[in-house]
Amino acid sequence: MAKVITGVGCPYCGASCDDIEVTVSDDGTKVLEVKNACAIGNQVFHHASTPGRITSPRLRQPDGTYKEISYEEAIDRAARILVNAKKPLIYGFGSTNCEGMSAAGRVAEKAGAVLDNCASICHGSSFLAIFDNGYPSCTLGEVKNRADVIVYWASNPAHAHPRHMSRYSIFPRGFFTGKGHMGRKIICIDPRVTDTARVADIHLQVQQGHDYELFNAFRTVLHGGDIPDMVAGIPKEKILEAAGIMKKARFGTVFYGMGLCHSDGRNHNVDIAISMTRDLNEFTKWTIMAMRGHYNIAGPGVVWSWQFGFPYCIDMTKRDLVHMNPGETSSVDLAMRDEVDAFVNIGTDAGAHFPIPAVQHLKKHPWITIDPNICMASEISDLHIPVAVVGVETGGVVYRMDNVPIQFKKVVEPAGGILTDEELFDKIYERMCELDQEA
Amino acid sequence: MKTVTLTMKNKPELILECNNVTPDAFAGKSLADIGRLEVYEGKFRAPLADYFEIAGEAGETAADTRIVMKGDCKRVKRIGQKMTAGEIEIEGDADMYIGGWMEGGRIHVKGNVDAFCGMAMKGGELLVDGDAGNYLGAAYRGDWRGMQGGLIRVKGNTGNDTATFINGGTIIVEGNAFIHVSTHGEGGTVVIKGDVEGRVGGQMVKGDVYVFGNIQYMLPGFKYMEDVEKEIDGTKATFAHYIGDLGERHPTSRGQTVYANLYVKA
Q: In Å, how far is A18's CA from the nearest CA of chain B?
C-alpha cells in the first residue's frame, strides 16, 4: 500500500513551500507521485528515485577516469587535503540543511579555511547593503495577510519562484486581503517584458543597469523634489504615478532580485532600495525582501552569523580572528586572484557558475565535490563524494527567504545507504582531529 | 631618518599578508628582530625574513623610520596598515589595503595598487603613481565611518566606490573613476580630474565633489544652482554648482539645510 506524506517541504526555490504531498512506494524507497509542487519542485523529488544515482565516492585516476572508493578512504583524503592546504576554500551550501552547514562550519574552523556560500555570487551584495543600511523586512505571512501594493523590482518570480505569486504576494486571500488579487496593485520594474511584468498593473521598463538612478528619482519625488522629464528610460509622469500608488498603500512590499545584485553597483542598488523603503515609511508601512534563490540559502547566513559572526565570505585562516570582506574573501575573487590552494564544492555547481578563469585557477589544486548528483563540478573534480538529497532522503531545518525556519521532512530512505552532509562533515572533522593527534 | 630596505627574495605561493610592515612595528628593533616579525600566507605563519632580504637600520621612533620595499610586491597585502608616522616607499605594484586605517606618515607607491587602499584612513598621506582599485578611501563593510582625514592622491584611474561613506579628508584622482563616488558621503572632499561614468554623490548628505571631466549619467537627485569660480589643486576654473542628493536626509545648520555640493567643470 503506497503511503502519502503530507506537509512536506520542497527543496527547490527560496519560497520553500511546505504544503507538498508526496506518495511513496510500500518499501519507502521510491517517490511515486508529488502534489502541490511546481514543475521544478516536482522534478527534484522524482530525481532522487532516478536509476543510475552515484552511491559511492569516486577518486580521479592518473588516466583521467573515476574509480569507486570507500567512504572511509574518501573521508581520509578530504581530511588530509584540508589539513595540508595553506588556504582551503569551502564553498556552496545552496542545497543542504542547516545541520550540514553547521557541521561544515566546524570543519572550516578546524581547517583554517575560507567558508563561503552561494550568496557570494547571488544575494551577497544584499548582505553588504544590509550591513550599511539595515533591513526593514517582514515575513511572507505578513505580505499575504496585509500587503495591498507589491513591487517586483528586477525579479521574475513567474519563472524563478513559480509559486511565490500564488502563495504569498498577488493571488492569496489573507486576513486583511480578502479580495486576493482584485484588491492588490502590482508594480513590476524590469528591463524585460517578463511573465511577471505581464501580470503587473504597471510595468516600468527601466534601462538596463540604471536602477540606481530610478531609485534616486523615486526618493527625490518622495522628498518633494523635482526630477528630469526622463530618468533611466522612464518618463517623469510614470514615476510620479507609481510613487503616488506606493504612498497610498496600506502595506507595501518590495521584492527585489538578481537584476539589482548582478548589475553595476550591486550592493548600492540594494542599498538605495532600502533607503527608498525607509522613505516610504514616512507615509505608510513598507517593507523590503530579497528574493533568495534556493530553499535554504538564507540558512548559512543565519547559522554562520550565530557560529562566527558573519554570514558569508568568512576567512578563518587566522584561526581565532575571523575576517570578512567580500571583494577579497569572496570565492570568485579568491579564485580569480589564485589565493586558495584547495577547494571543496558542496551542494552547488561551481563548475557551471564560476567564470572560466576562476575554475582554471581552482583546478590547479585539489578539488573535492560533495553533491548527490553528477554536475559539471563533479565531472572536473579530483574527488566526488555523493550525499543524500536534502528534503527527500533526509530532513532538517531550512530558512525560507524571509528567514523563517521550517522543518523539512525525509520522504524516502537514502539511495544505497549514502551519508548525509552532516554525517559526512562530522566524519571529516573526526578524521582531522585524529590526523592532528598523529602529528 | 633611517631606512630599512626589504627586498622580495622568495615570492609567496599564494599571497602574503604583512600588517607588521609599518614604521611603528619596525621602530627601535634590530634587523634580526624585524626579520622575526610574523607574516601570514594563508593559515601558515612565517617570519618576515623567510620572504624578504632585510637591510639597513630602523630609527628609534616610527617618525624616524623609513621602509623601502623592492622587488615584486604585487601579491603583498596590508603594507602600512594602521601606521601612525614615518615613511614607506614601494618601488613597484602592491596589493590590497595599502595604508588602510592609517593615522599618519606617508606612503608612496610607484606602481599600481589593488582594492581597499586607504580604507577608513584618519590621517597621513597616501600617494599612488599608478592606478588604484575599487573602494579607495572607503569604509569597511557596514561601517559608517569611511575616510576621516589625510590625503590620498592617485595619478592614474580608480575603480568603483571611491570614498564611500567619506566624512573627512581629501581624495584626488588625476585620472578617471568608474561609478559611485562619495556614495553616502557626510563630509570630506573628492576631486576627480578625469571622467566619471555616473552615480556621483548618491545618498550623499554633506561634503564636496569636484569633477573636471564629464559625468556620463548625472543623478536626478542633484539640482543645478549656479556657475562658480574655484581654484582646486592649483587649477582655476568655472564650475557648475549642483546641490544634492535631494532624495537623502539633510541636517540643518543655523536654520539652513545643508546639502552636499557637486562641482562639474564647465
A: 34
